[in-house]
Amino acid sequence: MDFKHSDKALHWQERVTRFLDDKVLPRAADYWAEVHADHTIQPRTMEALKAEARDAGLWNMFLPGEHGTGLSNLEYAPLAEAMGRAGLWTPEVFNCNAPDTGNMEVLHMYGNPAQQERWMKPLMAGEIRSAFLMTEPAVASSDATNIQTSIVREGDEYVINGRKWWSTNMGHPNVAISIVMGKTDTEAATHAQQSQVLVPTDTPGFRVERMLTVFGYDERPIGHAEVVLDNVRVPVENLIAGEGRGFEIAQGRLGPGRIHHCMRVIGAAEKALELMCERLLNRTAFRKTLSEHSVWEQRVGEARTNIEMCRLMVLKAAWMMDNGGAKNAKSEIAQIKVAAPKMALQIIDDAIQAFGGAGVSADTPLAEMYATVRTLRLADGPDEVHNRTIARLEYAKHGGRPVR
Amino acid sequence: MDFKHSDKALHWQERVTRFLDDKVLPRAADYWAEVHADHTIQPRTMEALKAEARDAGLWNMFLPGEHGTGLSNLEYAPLAEAMGRAGLWTPEVFNCNAPDTGNMEVLHMYGNPAQQERWMKPLMAGEIRSAFLMTEPAVASSDATNIQTSIVREGDEYVINGRKWWSTNMGHPNVAISIVMGKTDTEAATHAQQSQVLVPTDTPGFRVERMLTVFGYDERPIGHAEVVLDNVRVPVENLIAGEGRGFEIAQGRLGPGRIHHCMRVIGAAEKALELMCERLLNRTAFRKTLSEHSVWEQRVGEARTNIEMCRLMVLKAAWMMDNGGAKNAKSEIAQIKVAAPKMALQIIDDAIQAFGGAGVSADTPLAEMYATVRTLRLADGPDEVHNRTIARLEYAKHGGRPVR
Amino acid sequence: MDFKHSDKALHWQERVTRFLDDKVLPRAADYWAEVHADHTIQPRTMEALKAEARDAGLWNMFLPGEHGTGLSNLEYAPLAEAMGRAGLWTPEVFNCNAPDTGNMEVLHMYGNPAQQERWMKPLMAGEIRSAFLMTEPAVASSDATNIQTSIVREGDEYVINGRKWWSTNMGHPNVAISIVMGKTDTEAATHAQQSQVLVPTDTPGFRVERMLTVFGYDERPIGHAEVVLDNVRVPVENLIAGEGRGFEIAQGRLGPGRIHHCMRVIGAAEKALELMCERLLNRTAFRKTLSEHSVWEQRVGEARTNIEMCRLMVLKAAWMMDNGGAKNAKSEIAQIKVAAPKMALQIIDDAIQAFGGAGVSADTPLAEMYATVRTLRLADGPDEVHNRTIARLEYAKHGGRPVR
Amino acid sequence: MDFKHSDKALHWQERVTRFLDDKVLPRAADYWAEVHADHTIQPRTMEALKAEARDAGLWNMFLPGEHGTGLSNLEYAPLAEAMGRAGLWTPEVFNCNAPDTGNMEVLHMYGNPAQQERWMKPLMAGEIRSAFLMTEPAVASSDATNIQTSIVREGDEYVINGRKWWSTNMGHPNVAISIVMGKTDTEAATHAQQSQVLVPTDTPGFRVERMLTVFGYDERPIGHAEVVLDNVRVPVENLIAGEGRGFEIAQGRLGPGRIHHCMRVIGAAEKALELMCERLLNRTAFRKTLSEHSVWEQRVGEARTNIEMCRLMVLKAAWMMDNGGAKNAKSEIAQIKVAAPKMALQIIDDAIQAFGGAGVSADTPLAEMYATVRTLRLADGPDEVHNRTIARLEYAKHGGRPVR
């Protein structure tokens, strides 16, 4: 047991952190100015930063194996944290943003050579963006068996009908492809009913119904959409892996994805704590700085403790995935999925309280951070479902019925 | 001791509730459509509803004494709750929205006849809107002695310099007057340094620097502004009550204002609980409705309990103010100021969790409700300052030094 | 609506408080010295105080109607609070301690004249003590349908077999009678299977198996026992009200009983807050008193707020019972049952923290108070069951299936 | 970074766990029977188990370096956890119980050869027991500068006067020696005023005033005492390390000691979770097992998560101490000192709730576990002081004044 990162990992951390400090953060204001001027076009600042990151070799670091930089989940985790600390808009700079990461992983693991050539290649080059269409407004999608979108084979085509939402990246000017989850066989065994199909976003019948807001934030140019699939037809070659393997593919993508999310969240929590400490040291009330009021000592003390504990947990989950796969780390992944956002929300909320009016407005990143992290208690399944998973694995140790 | 509202109070509750159900809520969509089309103009729907409410005698109910409807704080409280439940945009329909209410009260209690004629009359008629400029970005304004805006007499004029923010109503197309708090004498005893002056919003040097957002919500046509006062000159007749009485006036306005806020918050919590129950009864996961999952029983049980307890506390505080004044109810007012928003935030957050993606988006009122209520843990002093007040009153019972 | 107690109620409060201050508290040390010397005999101090209380007319105040003092639940509640504040051993002084109170109520409402003469009379005189045997170790007794004790009629006798525990008062030297709940007809409708029977504690086959401790506290001379009923035979005349009415009787007793418990708990919380404030004002760390450390301001502020809110809730529940009966106040009674102990435990725990080592030891009453109040989250049904009740009543407002 | 224990560590874990399972737990009932029969004598079962453990080489594992088994803190931590899981009485079996461990460490690091021969040797052999007399009832001892006990040199002797409490082991029949902290020079710099002196417990003037209880539990044969030192005289040779070094020695002992405590607490939490799961799977209410009620899924999920996070944190703190010393791990040690007991108390409390009456009684170990762990939020400094330490280290990163 050793709590020190490897030299390789430290080296990567140093490179990414330096790039963020030297190249990315100085251009944050430019990026946001472009977004506020027109959030329907891709900011030129982003494309410039992407080019620099790619030239610097800081590109696709999330992807294990030869296609990326060959980093393990454990080695990648601190890089995701650094991005989360720099701002939740920065992962795109490194082509490391969700859901493109998950989609590239799926194509990497389950795509055939033609699919990889056609879609994975431009995604890995950062030339196009992609969406993952799973969640549906009409049903509790955390119970994946509820999904209603139908994928029916007619001749050489699949005909897709359904309604999806929270389809991230659908506001992106460069979005070109989506992976759609739906049922090819409603008569099959519960977990063999679903399939995943590649659907170009310009296919007839594929329609963005509206963009969604998060606590008042329109998150474009990324954005989350409600999408209607109305007799959308794609060639059967667009099927990924095989009919009935949709659930299996979905499970596979969630492990690393959750770890990435959690590490970014930990970075966000670090940022909030940093801002909070600076505020407390520089604000005076009742003749002493806020930092000297002991109520804040308790909050800062707990904030530091909770960040440290969550970070260790995420790193351990990453290490377990590297040494045995996601199935091996099922409970641990569920644990961080619940614990990290909860931890971060408390710290961000405390930081808001320390800042007063500046905390709820756009003068600090805190309110938007809160909104984004709040959605992570819901995205990829609500807390309740993950705690259920953990509990049932725990019960199984004591004779409770096994969990699939 | 009697927990039943008087017949008079029940009658008013019935009238206001019926008006909200029959007249206001059916036009909510119209109101919001106008706001979304152009949030810089006053929606015609609002003016139409105001006219109806006034005709129905449901007008200025917040104001005790002969100028309003003669309701006590205890009698008014459930009306504020009903408005909070209907939506935080509805109090304006009844001319019962902050900060106009507080400003009218100040003019009612401290204004001279000329000031009442010039400003209170059109405010009470709903013809103009007003702002209260107290909080400053540069200092912890919860410690009122920190306020830096200067009000210097030069001949027959006061010259005002300062920077204020969170000046609610400054986005309103009809805003015409503001009450500005500042220091007329920095050498006086701590609580006699400040004064309040009437400043028309079109006075030269009075400048809206920018509008603020709350989480991602721009709350116009009401809106909160940052305002710069740059050598603003007003005649000395605009002074309210007398030099050095600013702190006293500010204290006076906070009692009823906090009770109004808290009752609206309780109404919002009721609405959130209502929505949550409906969702739980109508959503299925893992083969039963969410309402049948016992974790939700615990949350709903606690929600109901906490609403009931907070409501009783607000009603008691209102009753104490009616029977002995705000000074008499100092601890109780501080108690509800902290307890009500905290209670409501938990319930709204649980409701968001029950709704999933719909909860954080604009498909439910929950996310905006959360943002608004979150600001109430800061507005009129943060929780920490109110708990300090309560604690020091408590300590005083055991020999701690007296609280002013 | 009026938050002022009636003159009558205030008069009683004044009498009871004065008696506690003048007569009871000065003898607390004597009482405990006797208990520590031998907890199997009734302390003479208690009997002396009982005689004085009875002479002073402060006796059986819990009982509504002509048998007691004619106080309503609303009027009695503050008296129970005063006893709780004075110490959880003091209700016996006034013959107002559980479970004797509940048993007297049951005999008062459901007993026939012979039963009243034989058992209620000496109970009301404080000459004997009684137990209520409901909870069973083998089943979740909060779901009353689980109860397994059998009551089988054989000729003119009932034969009772079963195992009960947490039978309070079974350590009392004066205990003479118990009310036993069990099933007379396992074939009847769910809520008509149970009956309640009077069983003298010296009946052959009635055996105290052992005394139970609560967090290390042996609570004798009151005490809680595990009792075995082994072919216990009583005459059929000992049946209360009628076969199959056990559930109905049990429901009836719980309303007032819970209010009494909750008011005593509120008194205990007041005592803990009082002790905490004194400690904070008199203990110095890091060159200032603990009261000047702002973390304690937050805790004291919240403590005061939560006590006030819970007290109002209990008073309202009492008022509702007085004006419509326990069934009418089903949700409110469940609410306080959960809220009051939770509130008190937090305050007691904070007070323990303020006292340090003195808090967990016998140098303050806090640790024992904590232990006793902790049991109230379980006794008469765990929190979870009461929250379930509240939630289902809430769901019913929105079309959920009705609650019986 | 590697989350796998070394083979050496795993081997020791296996040995200790097997010894606990095979030798210790089967004799738990014997041990407690002896204690309940007479808690003033050392149970023969304990001495027998100690002899077996010593023969098995499972002895003094806590002590780093050649005197013990040569285990690092990181390697020892899981052994402490295993003991905590087996029961808080089991560390003595392995001569690994506080405060003997800390006292042996002090003698190991600061004692001179004569002191080591006279006291450390029999302590390491398990022949005698020892106490550490630091905390005083009259002052907030968490601020060590408050300590009032005086140690005055007169000729070749030190004369000690003071009053100490929570002196653990003072109920032990074998206690022979104590280390007393007091002031040798009240004029010296704040942290150079104190010294530590060896005081045999049979020295004239050394008097056990009384034994203390913890939530009703008399914890003898170990026990915590209040001790009066009334003109106690010891030879100057009994001084440890040097005058004025008391604070330094105290700091040194706290690092490992806190880690041991925390690991035992984690073991206790594991035990509570284990018991809780078994209960939930085997108890039925409302026609399904408690484990199927989703409220328990949430609690079990959070319990598992919080245990995992705390354990990682303790292991990291241990690793940091092994690689840089306690000063290096100042924040981390403070973090676990607060986090571990808080985590465990929640889980134990939930387990109590799952067990109902059995949870608060002696039928499960839960209530006593709760009491013991509750004291750890106070012992070695209350949570508030540790959070203060963490916060000030955090502030220092942002320009706050340095922490000594």
From TrEMBL, chains A, B, C, D:
<dbReference type="InterPro" id="IPR050741">
    <property type="entry name" value="Acyl-CoA_dehydrogenase"/>
</dbReference>
<dbReference type="Pfam" id="PF00441">
    <property type="entry name" value="Acyl-CoA_dh_1"/>
</dbReference>
<feature type="domain" description="Acyl-CoA dehydrogenase/oxidase N-terminal">
    <location>
        <begin position="10"/>
        <end position="127"/>
    </location>
</feature>
<comment type="similarity">
    <text>Belongs to the acyl-CoA dehydrogenase family.</text>
</comment>
<keyword id="KW-0274">FAD</keyword>
<feature type="domain" description="Acyl-CoA dehydrogenase/oxidase C-terminal">
    <location>
        <begin position="244"/>
        <end position="392"/>
    </location>
</feature>
<dbReference type="GO" id="GO:0005737">
    <property type="term" value="C:cytoplasm"/>
</dbReference>
<dbReference type="GO" id="GO:0033539">
    <property type="term" value="P:fatty acid beta-oxidation using acyl-CoA dehydrogenase"/>
</dbReference>
<comment type="subunit">
    <text>Homodimer.</text>
</comment>
<dbReference type="InterPro" id="IPR013786">
    <property type="entry name" value="AcylCoA_DH/ox_N"/>
</dbReference>
<dbReference type="InterPro" id="IPR009075">
    <property type="entry name" value="AcylCo_DH/oxidase_C"/>
</dbReference>
<dbReference type="InterPro" id="IPR009100">
    <property type="entry name" value="AcylCoA_DH/oxidase_NM_dom_sf"/>
</dbReference>
<protein>
    <submittedName>
        <fullName>Acyl-CoA dehydrogenase domain protein</fullName>
    </submittedName>
</protein>
<dbReference type="InterPro" id="IPR046373">
    <property type="entry name" value="Acyl-CoA_Oxase/DH_mid-dom_sf"/>
</dbReference>
<dbReference type="Pfam" id="PF02771">
    <property type="entry name" value="Acyl-CoA_dh_N"/>
</dbReference>
<keyword id="KW-0560">Oxidoreductase</keyword>
<dbReference type="InterPro" id="IPR006091">
    <property type="entry name" value="Acyl-CoA_Oxase/DH_mid-dom"/>
</dbReference>
<dbReference type="GO" id="GO:0050660">
    <property type="term" value="F:flavin adenine dinucleotide binding"/>
</dbReference>
<dbReference type="GO" id="GO:0003995">
    <property type="term" value="F:acyl-CoA dehydrogenase activity"/>
</dbReference>
<feature type="domain" description="Acyl-CoA oxidase/dehydrogenase middle">
    <location>
        <begin position="131"/>
        <end position="232"/>
    </location>
</feature>
<dbReference type="InterPro" id="IPR037069">
    <property type="entry name" value="AcylCoA_DH/ox_N_sf"/>
</dbReference>
<dbReference type="Pfam" id="PF02770">
    <property type="entry name" value="Acyl-CoA_dh_M"/>
</dbReference>
<dbReference type="InterPro" id="IPR036250">
    <property type="entry name" value="AcylCo_DH-like_C"/>
</dbReference>
<keyword id="KW-0285">Flavoprotein</keyword>
